[in-house]
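Student: Hello, beginner here. Can you help me understand the protein record under this note? Any guidance would be welcome.
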Amino acid sequence: MTISRKILLLTAIVVTVAAWTTPAFSADRVIKVGTLKLIHAITPYFYEKFTPAGYKIEVIPYETPTDGKNAVVTRSVDFGTYGLAAATLGGAAGEPVVIIGAQCNRGMAVVAGAKSDIKSIKDLAGKKVAILPGSTQEVVILDRLKMEGMSIKDIQPIRVSFSDMPAALERGDIDAYVGAEPGPSISVAKGVGKIVEFPYSTPTGSVNMVMTTHELMIKENPELVKVFLSIHRKATEYAMANRAAFVDMAAQKLGQPRPTIEIAAPNVELTWNTDADWVKRAKYYGSEMLDKKQIRALPDYAKFIDTTFVAELAKTR
């Protein structure tokens, strides 16, 4: 055998071995989804179970609603879920964020020290209350204070992130907090906190977190929006219908004991649809933000809330 033929033979062997050992190229479209480290933001972790062939899900957790919103605005993620407040702040500022669906209702609570004399919203007067600025909870508690003839000036608001609120209460740094699950349930489970109320009596009701995307996603790839929302709906309905799976996933991803998650679960309603009633409550919420000068103008709701995708999805089983 000549040297040239030997070289050709060795080359063929190398190519064959490489073909056997190199993974096949995958053309799957990776869908990047931003979420928060909260039990009512757990739905994205169920997406993989309902993702059709040709797509893959990458879940990216964020600490604050503003971080999640900014990830959508900068297109660091394709879709992102966080509170209505952060979304409204973005929409009012002219940022290209669009609400395309809901994520959850409820998931909030006003919590006070277990041994404190705080039994109602009025009892918060003069107390140190942890509130996360820019959160849905902030607008809701301001509305509740107004309903009681009070304002933010009647309490001592302290900026604390949701994940730090239970520890701050336990240390005695604060007297109460307006938190997000599983924070309230952590405080209750440890015996250091008690529920003052679930603040759903305002016209905003229990509306909390939303699902959003960049406005260019809707223009450039509406088919991907449809695929994603179908995944979101199936994952949402599965998690709500399978409480054990919901609790297990939340305990795993949040690193909290199962008993704590069990306490939190009844205070969480995962959802996906933005019907007429939901939109009405979301617009009221925006008007409250405007009234409290948290925004300078209302978002352009004709663009800011796009219900066309979920309306079409709602027609299917």
Observations:
- The two ends are 68 Å apart (CA to CA).
- Residues 6-25 have pLDDT under 50 and may be disordered.
- The first strand starts at residue 29 and ends at 36.
